Amino acid sequence: MKIIVLCGGEGPEREVSLRSGAAVSAALEEQGHDTVMEDLHGKKDIFPLFSGGSDRFAFIALHGGWGEDGTLQAALEMMGVPFSGSGHSACALAMDKTASKALFRWKGITVPKGVEVCRGTTAKEILESSRLPLILGKSGKLVVKPCCSGSTVGVSILEGTDMLGEALEEAFRFDPRVLVEEFIPGRELTVAVQEENGIPSCLPVIEIQPAKGFYDYTSKYTPGACEYIVPAPLSEFVRRRVENASLEAHAALGCRAYSRVDLRLGDDGSPVVLEVNTVPGMTATSLVPKAAASAGVS
Fold it and tell me: N or C: which end of the chain has fewer CB within 10 A?
């Protein structure tokens, strides 16, 4: 069976996607698979790739946009093409941070407090909202992010509200819907969830320590910009809590095969789920390969 690695796209995560695609292609070829990497420039590129027969498998390394929001997955499902990762509904839910967090709350999974605003909402309107004191929380910090974006594109962390207008403007560049959330102090963790025969389990927990600032786009994809501790130094009790929260988030969305769950570990040892990635990065600096290597998985 030929494996077609889908990557590229037109969005802000294009370069990362190409790097993921190259890494995946190299790994598959090393294992002897018949592999071809395809740089997609638009949705129309999908259909010709899979019209030549049924002996093809799609490995999705297309980050963000229609590669991760369920559009690509739905197209492959309609064509009867087997593919890597979660189905269209799980991808659509995970990509929409408002929808996924509403589902997590309903399932009893702890997430940050926040409010969604639409393009045209001003900083003044948010500052006058009765919910703002709850969102500011104890830290006095805010996180402003696009509702449907990845790789920390368009994300700002604010000390107070003075720069809220500028942060909204930046986030609205990438999405007409924006989340304004409380900042959760504590340790930054991520957990790769993998399934074997439909049974999910966690790879070693990773702790992320950026050299400066927060874990933004530059930190994620610049070698040496972060220290990654694998496995994270956690007590058995806390590790189990982190893993359970990750498994619950993976299951709540209906993910399959694999996902990556990003969390914050509060000062009291309670995990807070930030988001779930259904098409996690596979570059040399990406987190899933680091967790897999720590567990001895190639």
Answer: C
